[in-house]
TrEMBL record:
Coiled-coil zones: none
InterPro entries: EryCIII-like_C, Glycosyltransferase_28, UDP_glucos_trans, UDP_glycos_trans_CS
Source organism (scientific name): Amycolatopsis melonis
Keywords on record: Transferase
Domain of life: Bacteria
Residue ranges occupied by any Erythromycin biosynthesis protein CIII-like C-terminal domain in the UniProt entry: 235-373
Keyword Transferase: yes
One Pfam family linked to the record: EryCIII-like_C
Name under which the protein is recorded: Glycosyltransferase
Length: 379
């Protein structure tokens, strides 16, 4: 079987899930490649997976330099964005032009698969599978994001027309590999084609005694957050008011060196942090609620204070709160006092850690994502 996996050229969309799945398919004797932009080709190929480079797929760097390609109003929105004042940033979660170009690139590449497996944020693979007459599946690296594009089916049908395809009125793949237990998914998203798996990860020893609180907001946040924002200062001040050790990841050593904000004695400012290792030993995770970070926290059984900033993060944060896995805090109007109160509550109330621990147990009982390969055979 020839398996083509498709994903946006973003490391966090490819390396944690698509690459292990690709390697498992290789080990099972299948011919495998990942189709994506050239920006991540070297990283993927270094892990032993061939890459079909799609020439028209924008790299993250190009999007960062020219955000108007995604949304003409985005540069102005970014200039005005102060999450502690204005709340989460409204980002476009589906781009018609980029999706159409991705699909056309996959079809033109000449790599003819028997099945296409895409990651959630990448819809060109779904359309390319329809053009090529092969089934498609999805690895759900952002489970709640499709609900945030209410006209998704209609917009995909417009793109189908441009590719000579009939409308389907749907945005469905034959199979879905969820990366958390079924309980994470709202009932309306639990389809017959859903499988639930855990991401296979090597055991990580705890990072020493570890902090009581670990705060990290992802690489994308660091790239988008305006220098004028006081968000990180509020975070450091809030944790400084607590009588527990804390670590705040600023995203780079340069950010630590240039930091001019407060430096409380109980708060360590760090650049790059081995997140999974720190999660293995901390008691509360202060996070932007990106799905990968939520998944890693639950895999470690760590409750969260979720401070969502953009994309699907508000939906993820709301789900964390709904399931009793932590608290959601609105960044708009954020003060050190309100944030410190939320962290203190999650530290103090055993119910949050109990719920996260139960989720950890459910995750450990799931079959590994590599088992999803067996479900991909078109037969």
């Amino acid at each position: 079987m020839r398996v083509l996996l498709t994903g946006l050229p973003i490391r966090s969309h490819l390396l944690p899930a698509l690459v292990p799945l690709a390697r498992a398919a290789q080990a099972a004797g299948h011919e495998v490649a990942i189709a994506t932009g050239g920006a991540v080709a070297e990283d993927v190929e270094r892990l032993g997976v061939p890459v079909v480079v799609l020439p028209d797929v924008l790299t993250p760097g190009e999007l960062g330099r020219r955000p108007e390609l995604v949304d003409p109003e985005l540069p102005a929105k970014l200039r005005r964005w102060r999450p502690e004042l204005t709340g989460p940033l409204a980002l476009p979660l589906f781009n018609d032009t980029m999706t159409a170009e991705f699909a056309a690139n996959v079809v033109a590449a000449g790599w003819r698969p028997d099945v296409i497996v895409r990651e959630t944020n990448e819809y060109g693979g779904l359309l390319a599978a329809e053009v090529l007459g092969v089934p498609s599946a999805v690895v759900d690296v952002a489970p709640l994001i499709s609900r945030l594009v209410p006209d998704l089916a209609a917009r995909l049908d417009v793109l189908r027309g441009g590719l000579g395809l009939p409308p389907s009125g749907a945005a469905a793949d034959r199979l879905t590999a969820g990366l958390l237990p079924q309980a994470w998914y709202p009932p309306e998203q639990r389809t017959p084609g859903h499988r639930y798996h855990r991401v296979p990860e090597p055991a990580v020893p705890p990072a020493g005694d570890g902090p009581a609180v670990f705060a990290a907001f992802g690489s994308n946040v660091q790239a988008l957050l305006p220098a004028e924002s006081a968000l990180m200062t509020i975070v450091v001040e809030a944790l400084g008011a607590l009588d527990v050790p804390a670590v705040v990841a600023l995203g780079s050593e340069a950010a630590v060196t240039s930091w001019t904000g407060p430096r409380p004695a109980n708060v360590e400012l760090a650049g790059f942090v081995p997140q999974r290792a720190v999660l293995a030993s901390c008691r509360v995770f202060l996070t932007h609620a990106g799905f990968a970070s939520v998944r890693e926290a639950l895999t470690a059984g760590v409750p969260m204070v979720a401070l969502p900033l953009f994309a699907d993060q508000p939906a993820n944060a709301a789900r964390v709160a709904e399931l009793g896995l932590g608290l959601q805090v609105d960044p708009a109007g954020l003060t050190p006092q309100t944030l410190a109160a939320a962290v203190s509550r999650v530290l103090a109330e055993p119910a949050f850690r109990s719920a996260a621990g139960e989720f950890r147990r459910r995750i450990a009982e799931l079959p590994p994502l590599t088992d999803f390969v067996a479900a991909l055979s078109p037969g």
